[in-house]
Amino acid sequence: MVNGMANKDDDINNDFSDTSVLVKKRSKLKKPPLYKVLLLNDDFTPMEFVVHVLEKFFAIGHEKAVQIMLTVHKKGIAVVGVYSHDIAETKVTQVMDYSRKNQHPLQCTMEKE
Ligand code: TYC
To answer: Among 22, 43, 68, 100, whose CB has the most other CB atoms within 10 angstroms?
Structure first.
């Protein structure tokens, strides 16, 4: 109360003693899309090099790296990680550049989840 006068809003608007229900609006913010980074098999890249790549660029431990490499070797392709667009793009570029530098034909791609 100011100057001995009641603010009309206190009575009219700031009063939830009626039967109204407050419903929280659903957020309209969308989650950013995620991208799978995929490793492809070929007949020439050494198995040890693929394991090394998985350890170096994807922070995957040795045993898990061997397991993923063998999945690609047997099935032709495997997901090695899921990331935001820019991180996935960076991983693909790092693998492709490093493989080319070491003269291996290893292929890495990304696709929207
Ligand atoms: N197939 C390869 C070999 O027999 C090994 C390999 C595994 C290559 C996974 C690529 O993404 C790959 N040497």
So the answer is: 68
Quick: pLDDT tens for 62-79. 999 999 999 999 999 999
Residue nearest to atom 10 of ligand 1 (CA): 41
Separation of CA 101 from chain center: 27
Ligand 1, atom 5: nearest CA belongs to which residue? Answer: 47
82 pocket-lining for ligand 1 (C-beta < 6 Å): no
Is residue 52 in contact with ligand 1, taking CB distance under 6 Å? no
Rounded CA gap, 40 and 75, in Å? 9
Q: 82 alpha carbon to ligand 1 midpoint, in Å?
A: 21
What pTM was estimated for this model as a whole?
0.78
Answer for the pair 64, 11: CB distance below 8 angstroms, yes or no. Answer: no
Burial 12-27 (b: 16+ CB within 10 A, else e): eeeeeeeeeeeeeeee
